[in-house]
Amino acid sequence: MNELLEKLSNARGVAGHEGEVRAILREELAPFVEELSVDSMGNLIARKGGSDAARQHRVMLAAHMDEVGGMVMRANSDGTVKFRSVGGLDPRILPGKRVTIGPQAVPGVILRAPHAARSGRRVMPISELLIDTGGAGGIEPGDMITFESGYEQYGRLLKGKAFDDRVGCYILAELLKSEFPSELVGVFTVQEEIGLRGAGVAAYTVQPDVAVALEGTVADDLPKQNDVSPTTELGKGPAISVMDRSAHADRRLVRILTETASDHDIPWQFKQPGVGGTDVGSIHLARAGVPAVAVAVPCRYIHTPAALMDPEDVKNTIQLMSKALSGPLGQPLGAEWSDA
Description:
By secondary structure, the chain is of the alpha+beta class. The protein has helices spanning 3-10, 19-29, 114-117, 163-176, 197-206, 251-263, 280-283, 311-326, and strands at 35-38, 44-48, 58-64, 69-75, 80-86, 98-101, 106-112, 129-132, 144-147, 152-154, 157-160, 183-189, 210-218, 239-240, 269-270, 292-299, 307-309. Helix content is 24%, strand content 26%. α1 (3-10) runs antiparallel to α4.
């Protein structure tokens, strides 16, 4: 779809190790923004001014740079590595997966520990898995572990290991290349997968009037044994969140986005309430509070080496955000909360 999206998906960056992703974004955005800075947490903050008449309205767009993965706990003398998860990993998908370890990207394969294999349990907890490196050296406790999986096209879909949330980073970068009437602050956040940590610090500093988190989210839209509604579906446009485990979305912003989509014939969907969490969870609590909402691209097999997404959903998310920022999202909310 785009060289930048491929670079971002292939880059390695679990929580606390986002430097490779940050470097790609700094180089990409330098010609398009007025200011680029990195705060004490490692968040990359990009600022654009907007017209003089609207400078009092500041919009923060956030997308997190980190991906799920692992961390080395111990390198054993037999060439295996003990590890723990960083972010939400399902242990059922891990055995047999290829990974890369540390700054030298040492290759390895996840396997069950011998004593665990004899136990007869069908699903091994991560505490009973090891990584076989074939005896490679140079691995230290604290080294990051990422899936070995490249960006590819699968039919009409795209496959990548880290669309959560490199697709959000890509969308934010593309938006920062355009001009909008309000002051726009793009924040590429750190450590979302381990507690929404970077976003809260950034929101405290930026002091936005409104905020939108741009995400990749769960698309569980394949047939199920039970009749359960999917969280989101591929090909049906950006997913607008009304509530998840981290926050309730500001209903005024939800209305702005849904009405903008309808006015411009952009397909969209609601994300099933109560599922997942985003940087909105910490952004909306900053200082005196920030009206915030999340907009996400649906991704099948999220948090695995092979997430799939529809490029049309990516294009429609960019279009929705562009129209909203050029219109009502780029203006002060105005009306106070009503009890009606």
